Amino acid sequence: MKQWVKRKDRIAAFLSWRVILMLILTASLVLLLGARKNFGWQQYVQLTLDGLRGGTIYALIALGFVTIYNITGVINFAQGAFAMLGALLAITIDDWALLAAWPPAARLFVASLVAIVLTMLVGILIERLTIAPARDAEPLTHIIITVGVYIVIQGIALIIWGTQPYTLPAFTTLAQRDVTIRLGGLIIKGQSFWIWGTTLVSMVLLYWFFEHTMLGRALRACAVNRTAARLMGISPSRMSLFAFALAAALGALGGIVLAPATRPTYDMGLSLGLKGFVAAVMGGMTNPGAAVVGGLLLGSIENIGAGVTRAGFKDIFSFIILIWILLFRPSGLFGRPHTVEKV
Amino acid sequence: MWKQSSLMQFVVVTLVILVLGLFEWWQPLGLSVSTLTGGILTFNTLTRIGILTIVVVGLNLLMGYAGQVSLGQAAFYGIGAYTSAILTTRAELFGFPSAVAAAWWWPWLLIGVGAAFTALFAYLVGKPILRLKGHYLAMATLGLGIMVYILLRENIGFRASVLNLTGGFDGIFDIPRLRIGAFVLWPIERYYFLVWGIALCALALAHNIANSRVGRALRALHGSDIAAEMVGIDTADYKLRVFVLSAVYASVAGSLYAHFQAAVSPTPFHFLGSLGFVVMAAVGGMRSIWGAPLGVGIILFIQDLLRAKGDRLLAGIGNEAEPVVFGLVLILIMIFLPNGIASIRHRHPVHHSGGGA
Fold first, then answer.
1. How far is B243 from chain A (nearest CA, A)?
2. Chain B within 8 Å of A150 (Cβ-Cβ)?
């Protein structure tokens, strides 16, 4: 929460000659691999656009990671479950027989809102039942607890929704078929604009919330120094609760806008959560703005990587980035280099 | 090095394993462990406990003693399993004559080859990665584990028609059983004793290490890297050594797993597999050698109990409720017994050293 605005010197540090050399090497490798598949510039732009769509969701989930980590010091591996819950709850409410008479747009809107609120409740329950009782535990214990939470949520989702994929109507057409916009050989789905738009709006709202509301400022104070915040009359325990609710809402929102573009299943949360985490690490774990950039970068890089090699290798690129960042830029892409001691 | 009490513990555990195995084998009065436990504790489960104990005891040394978290242990387990699987079923791809591939000692040699290969791999990746601490090390090992999993799943990037190494999603079938000369270590009654023999050796070795100069050094660097350096411990070297050792443990267990299942597929070596190992270690208690078999036993017992009796406990949704109950047990143990079940014996509060915090 400390740095919404990137500083010039950070960008300068990011663009050191070693990084530039690596970028050139990687780019030429990608072009070489792409040339074997006869890729033109259109393919690369298309891959980037598709990657940015997924990357936006990673960014939303990464924001949840960052919020919770800043305020409680916990890495919440159940983060991906929020996206899954948001998507599947919205679909179920949207299909609810009682709402069948409503106009589809209103139904979709209400379903999304209710799904987000329900997921926030789940987030609050998680915090109260599993994080609060083990507040002073070691990091490893927290990791195992949140992973346990993820297993439980996914297990309950399996009981409720089964293994089949579901569909949510596209937001533009309110039907399964989405509009596609063709722009000089490029294909963009209408839903992509919804995904980008929603994320942009929610980030502006978040910025306003953290900068200009009392609650947001209290959260930031808690992130900077928990003890000092408590002395100022801010309850860290309440703030921890808010952090989980906020992270759950962000995750659910991501899941809902993503739902029409993919086919949500009960187990979609694991990979979304891991990618969101990688994005958060790319942003240095504490910087929300950098986490969003990290998410977008991750989405496009992995999609281009998968495009020039093979689809099954998509995840490998995310984790190569993860390890590279951890080893060489542990405080994130835009953080100060050489601060390994971050724990 | 061996105190009377720990020697006694070993004797007791060995006897329990022997008695369980012999009881199940001969089934006096038509009774067996599996009928007495209603089909939950079968030879299959007992053998799997032995295999996983080997992995988890290595993890205990790494996480409980040295305080270095690994969320990618299934990668080493997988490398061991796949080395055995590939070189027993596709030896001709590497130019080994079929006479060698058919010899009884070939799979045994491969267990060693797999272990050596895994050790080299762990050494090469451990060198840079172990500079990281706490959360960061956990995440790096997590990424590493998933990368190895994807390579196994994607046939290391080769087209299956060109070079079929790992068999992709389907994996490798028809892995031969281990044998000594003409004596095949199968059916499972024989394999059980082999697995537990190796597991007990692994436990004894780990016990020796934990109670030696090395073990004390590991605990010192768990407490504080800087303090350990100050008293003359080469922390980077010790971390790397214990990381490689835990990888070798996992690799040997992986080879045993491949010959036990007679088939391997990538699924058990995914992130959830690595996580399972950490969970077993944490549930049993990482700061004790005996935490390993205890944790593995408890987790496998819960899983099998839910699989076998879940329907009766939770009418209708028994099978599907398994992960839910499993996750709940995990959360409860971590909240109320963060140092694992093995810590129940110690009345005095276990000190919280900084570790990754």
1. 17
2. yes
Look up residue B234 and give its amino acid: D
Task: At B66, list the tokens.
Answer: 């040295």
User: What's residue B308's pLDDT?
Assistant: 76
Q: B285 in the Ramachandran plot: left (φ > 0), alpha (ψ -120 to 50) or beta?
A: left
Please give the interface size between A and B, counted as residue pairs whose CB atoms are below 8 Å apart.
Answer: 140
**Residue in B with minimal Cα distance to A143:** B135
**For residue range A86-144, what is the model confidence (pLDDT) as tens digits?**
999 999 999 887 888 888 889 999 999 999 999 999 999 999 999 988 888 887 788 88
Is residue B21 helix, strand or coil? helix
CA A44 to each of CA A37, A183, A306, B217, B349: distance values in angstroms, whole numbers, following the listed order? 12, 14, 11, 52, 59
Q: Which residues contact A274 (CB under 8 A, 6 or more apart)?
A: A80, A318, B142, B146, B271
Q: Is A47 helix (H, G, I), strand (E, B) or coil?
A: helix
User: How high is the mean pLDDT of chain B?
Assistant: 87
ipTM of the complex: 0.82
* Positive or negative torsion for Cα A147, A151, A156, A161: positive
Q: Are strands B179-180 and B183-184 parallel, antiparallel or unpaired?
A: antiparallel
Nearest to A248 by CA among A144, A146, A137: A146
Residue contact A155–B326, C-beta within 8 A: yes
Interchain proximity B327–A159, CB inside 8 Å: no
Whether A140 has its CB under 8 Å from any CB of chain B: the answer is: yes
CB contact under 8 A, A148 and B328: yes
Question: Which of B69, B131, B150 has the CB atom closest to A140's CB atom?
Answer: B69
Q: What is the pLDDT of residue B346?
A: 57
- Which residues of chain B, if any, have pLDDT below 70? 1, 310-319, 345-357
DSSP E strands in chain B: the ranges are: 179-180, 183-184
Instruction: Show me where the domains of chain A are located.
Output: 55-293
CA A230/CA B123 separation, integer angstroms: 46
Exposure pattern of B48-79 as b/e (b: 16+ CB <10 Å)?
A: bbbbbbbbbbbbbbbbbbbbbbbbbbbbbbbb
Would you place residue A20 in the very low, low, confident or very high pLDDT band (cuts 50, 70, 90)? confident
Among B131, B136, B280, the residue to mutate for chain A (most A Cβ within 10 A):
B136
Neighbours of B290 (CB within 10 A): 20
Min CA distance, A104 vs chain B (Å)?
Answer: 33
Contact state of A323 with B129 under an 8 Å Cβ cutoff: yes
Nearest CA in chain B to A340: B132
- Domain at B4-344: CATH code: 1.10.3470
Percent of chain A with pLDDT over 70: 93
Q: At what angle do helices B73-89 and B134-153 cross, to 10 degrees?
A: 20
Q: CB-CB: which of B150, B275, B324 is closest to A316?
A: B150
Categorize the per-residue pLDDT at A1 as very low, low, confident or very high, splitting at 50, 70 and 90.
very low
CB proximity B92 to A under 8 Å: no
Burial A74-103 (b: 16+ CB within 10 A, else e): bbbbbbbbbbbbbbbbbbebbeeeebeeee
Per-domain residue ranges for chain B? Answer: 4-344
